[in-house]
Sequence to fold (667 residues):
Amino acid sequence: MEFPYLFSPIKINSMELKNRIVMTAMHLGYTPEGFVTDQLVDFYVERSRGGVGLIIVGGCPIDEYGGMSSMVCINDDRYIPGLRSLAGAVKDGGAKVCAQLYQAGRYTHSAMIGGRKPFSASAVRSKLTGETPRALEPGEIAGVQDRFAEAAARAKEAGFDAVEILASAGYLISQFLSPITNKRQDEYGGSLENRMRFGLEVAAKVRRAVGPDYPILVRIAGNEFMEGGNTNHEACLFAQALEREGVDLFNVTGGWHETRVPQLTMFVPRKAYVYLASGIKRSVALPVLASNRINDPREAEEIIRNGEADMVTVARGLIADPEFPDKARTGRAGTIYRCIGCNQGCFDNIFRFMPATCLVNPRAGRERDLEIKPADKKKKVLVVGGGPAGMKAACVAARRGHVVTLVEKENRLGGQILLNERIPGRGEMTTAVEDLAGNLSYLGVEVMMGVKADREFIEGMNPDTVLIATGARPDLPDIPGVDLPHVVQAWDVLSGNTGVGKRVVVVGGNAGGLDTALFLAGIGTISSDVLHFLVANRAETIDTLMGLLNMGNKQVTVVEMAGKAGQDIGLSSRWTVFAELGRLGVSIMTNSRVVRITHDAVEVETDAGVKVIAADTVVMATGSRSVDDLKHKLNGIVSEIHVIGDAVRPRNALEAIKEGFMAGLAL
Fold:
């Protein structure tokens, strides 16, 4: 497939881009002291060489008050030499480069600025930090705005092709713009005209600092998604005012960090917020960039072809695959490793104050250390197991020049990842399997499915190396009644191999148990297609439709021994899982232990004593154990054996794929 719209050039003021793909700013954690590092340069250079049109670096704090640790600083001249080396290296790779000007306001933790109180438009408590900022005094405002202009001048001096003013996501400029956080009584508060004033003056000062020909981008929230906040209507008016101040492009994203509407997880449908960019585009003459959950070149092409936006953001998608643009441009779209929105390696790591990596791309952030080089000696490699670890190992080994065969006993590749196929909001996980399968085919890996790799089979294959990636199987706890016929495994439920009754108790409140509960609670709710049909034809009232969306035909209870359920779910996704469980009426019992299962109930020991829960079906989601019995059977047959993935120890997909990658690299 060709992508003529996606790969057409576009001019932003004096800057000409070779295509319409933009890698927008993300916090990566690669600059612990604020100075540009080799790790940061290597990361962005690889993306530049992969064919992206524009890379936006950041956020880059404009002063010492508004950032967080390990961000790329631009608030002092001492950072210019490093910034210059970064800009030069990125441009040498073929992309243009932009610096995002960042001031977080009330989203700044006081601990990150030496215990000082963060400032904002008004003293309104932040749900994100739990702190209340101080309101900027009228005499301080001009100085803060000047810091934006000074940072822009540094970016220009360092060789960046453009700057982006961050006016979205609930950061400082948003805090002045929104009636939620702006309670001022002076000329910067009250009416929308007054609330826009701070951001407009920032744009004007930045323009004066960089001159008329230098591109200025502004990242704005198309809708704050906050009760009582700005909508796309106000965003359009703000964009029109910014256009009059001489900015050159609008980068339109979704809501604030405090919103209860998911922005980045796989619960968000692909292209969900393109409509916000379209609203801005109808209001201005300038180019508009659409953001959030655009991870496929076919969808990106469609957005531009249909006139919904002029450009597209592929941010995490370029963490997942630096070659995304070139693969699309050269007819290799089927080999792109797409971002699945899992957040496990990127946002979850940042929340733990760790550098970003990626579930589908273990090289992210380690480009120099984990370079994939041709093998010194070509080997005949047999991979046993077609789950994520085995598939990744096979891809890396084949890319290095080995002759690889992958054997899977089932008739589908993917292993446990396929269990996500039926879970609401988790289906994107199977995209990782599709992309691994596409690369296996492209790399010439022989794939044998429906084949059990026992000792005799492996002996007949005569491999030099065997990678054992046989995964895990469900674990079954020693509970009286666990062998009753109405007790089933979560894996069988999610695979569609067994049905359940009306009253269901899920034993185990880990990620697997909660995902199973989500699936069960969603049974009987209306699909998105049916919802669209009913809304379009005004067939039902909004209240009726909400009921049909939120109420299935199962009563689901989750029983968890620990004090908290879902402790193995990342911070960026956990709240969305619990929000969905709450919406669907799932009951979650913690500090509760199942002591006996009967024919029609589950007896649960709680702090208040034993409670009996009626149950037509009991679903066991109590973990798994490794399938690792093959290795000792291969003694004397194969000299080199590696055990990887869940066959070593049950873990998540991020660890499995990383282990498969490292195994392929080590051969």
